[in-house]
Automatic annotation (TrEMBL):
Source species: Flavobacterium restrictum
Protein name: FMN-binding glutamate synthase family protein
Transmembrane feature ranges: 28-45
GO molecular function: glutamate synthase activity
Family affiliation: Belongs to the glutamate synthase family.
Lineage, opening ranks: Bacteria, Pseudomonadati, Bacteroidota, Flavobacteriia, Flavobacteriales
Pfam families: Glu_synthase
Length: 501
């Protein structure tokens, strides 16, 4: 290919020169061809990129198409039901609810229902009245002196650093208007989180915002922030579903001077938080740390977030809580299908328990140890609709969090660029130019409407199931396709036999 490129390139160059010599035009073409030849020459002698060495100019098309592949996929190839991780239909639902416009669907479902993986709600012949009030749940066990009345749906942990300052401000202002909480993520509590909305302050292994000079936990700094009126609850992050067992990752491109200052780290380098906490290293230590934080926070609710891995460790922890008579006020269970700003693929694809079994395991284990009533269970994992909320409650959760749902409400288009600072919608970037696209006053309204309309949809489903309260919801209101495919397989052949007789 190289020979052909140089042969045809030289011929084209000479032809352009000849045309210019005789007819006095074509000089620009000759210059362009010469430049291409020079680029081609440079590429053919470099040793790093095999494609460019063999196809000195055409090779660039590969990089171009690779760069725009996600857009081509989304605009021209993706069908309504098959985008990943969220389908076009799922994303559209959030956009419509966030814009507070008609979110109905025409012509009937696009899903294949008559199959074993189908799931649906067993509606009642006598539906209940749809509740107008949006549901709330009180968080705070017997050691908590400042219990918090949380909304059933809240903003899951996403740090300033991972998200832009405009995104964080819009989320917090939306939370203020809708009266729900906004989890800071492990990147620390910043002025952008303090726009008036309720805050759950998350403490990760980097202890950003309550970090001593050696990177350990600083109780004094913690107490200062934990006692701010906006901070309603504190969450110790053990792990998250997208990268359990791996600490937080802040890519160098997103680690600006401002973020580095807030976190107390060096700017412009990739920041890897350690996988484990230095303040404790076992179940006993974690329980003692919970008690310590509760004391420093003057009795505010303290909980922890985890993605389930080795189940026996969770059982040991439950036993330890009983032994020490000290319980977290809440436990947040994150499914392995959870999102992140940046994670190694091995961790995203191959570590941790998915949402459904994890939630069932945690709630059943708490029941088995007789401590379910002492602890609220919060969950996260692709909860973006009223249906997903009801399903989570049926599996045992008390409260739901959504991260990517609220990102969609901010205008995220699933461009899959959270990790390289090039998010085109200004949601997950620190690029000031891109951030300008996200207007805080407009997007905070969308955050507010997404929350309100989604919970209203959950209220409607609750009523359709004939239930008056979310506390009455359990798994019995759901049916799975395997039930009726089994029914069909069992009864239709019999019926046909009867007919034949
Ligand atoms: C951009 C982004 C940043 C995140 N940052 C954090 C974080 O700092 N701490 C944490 O515990 N989880 C973090 N998460 C995980 C979410 O809080 C949530 O647990 C997970 O995405 C599942 O919820 P979802 O399916 O609604 O997105 C992040 C997720 C995203 C998408």
């Amino acid at each position: 290919m190289r020979q052909k490129f140089f042969l045809f390139g030289t011929i084209a160059f000479l032809m352009a020169l000849t045309v210019y010599y005789f007819f006095n035009f074509g000089l620009t073409a000759a210059i362009c061809i010469a430049l291409l030849l020079l680029v081609g020459l440079a590429n053919s002698i470099q040793k790093k990129h095999a494609i460019l060495r063999n196809f000195p100019v055409l090779g660039y098309f590969r990089y171009l198409f690779e760069m725009i592949a996600p857009e081509i996929q989304q605009y021209f190839i993706e069908r309504s039901t098959d985008g990943k991780p969220f389908s076009r239909n799922q994303r559209s639902l959030v956009y419509q609810r966030a814009k507070n416009i008609d979110a109905t669907t025409p012509f009937g479902t696009q899903l294949v229902l008559n199959q074993s993986s189908y799931e649906g709600i067993k509606h009642s012949m006598f539906p209940a009245k749809v509740k107008e009030d949006l549901p709330r749940v009180l968080v705070g066990g017997s050691d908590c002196t400042q219990p918090y009345s949380a909304s059933l749906l809240n903003i899951s942990a996403m740090s300033f650093g991972s998200l832009s300052e405009n995104a964080i401000m819009a989320l917090n202002k939306g939370a203020l208007k809708g009266h729900f909480y906004h989890n800071t993520g492990e990147g620390g509590l910043t002025q952008f989180h303090l726009q008036g909305g309720d805050v759950t302050w998350q403490i990760g292994t980097g202890y950003f915002g309550c970090r001593d000079d050696r990177g350990g936990f600083d109780g004094g700094k913690f107490a200062e922030k934990a006692n701010l009126p906006a901070v309603k609850m504190i969450e110790i992050k053990l792990s998250q579903g997208a990268k359990p067992g791996h600490g937080g990752v802040l890519p160098a491109q997103k680690n600006t001077e401002e973020i580095a200052k807030i976190r107390g780290v060096q700017p412009h380098i990739t920041i890897l938080s350690p996988p484990s906490h230095s303040a404790f290293s076992d179940a006993k230590g974690l329980v003692a740390f919970i008690a310590h934080l509760r004391e420093l926070a003057n009795g505010k609710p303290i909980g922890f977030k985890l993605c389930i891995g080795e189940t026996s460790e969770f059982e040991t922890l439950c036993q330890e809580m009983i032994n020490s008579n000290c319980y977290p006020d809440f436990i947040t269970v994150d499914g392995a299908e959870g999102g992140t700003g940046a994670a190694p693929l091995e961790f995203a694809d191959g570590v941790g328990m998915p949402f459904e079994p994890a939630l069932i395991f945690v709630t059943k284990t708490l029941v088995r140890f007789g401590i379910r009533d002492k602890i609220r269970v919060i969950c996260s994992g692709k909860i973006i609709s009223g249906y997903a909320i009801l399903r989570a409650i049926a599996l045992g959760a008390d409260i739901c969090n959504s991260a990517r749902g609220f990102m969609f409400s901010l205008g995220c288009i699933q461009a899959l660029r959270c990790n390289n600072n090039e998010c085109p919608t200004g949601v997950a970037t620190q690029n000031k130019m891109l951030m300008k696209g996200l207007v805080v006053t407009d997007k905070s309204e969308r955050v507010y409407h997404f929350h309100k309309n989604t919970l209203h949809a959950a209220n409607e489903l609750l009523a359709a199931a004939g239930k008056k309260d979310f506390a009455d919801v359990d798994i019995s209101i759901f049916m799975r396709g395997d039930e009726f495919t089994h029914l069909a397989n069992t009864y239709f052949p019999d019926n046909l036999t009867n007919v034949a007789k």
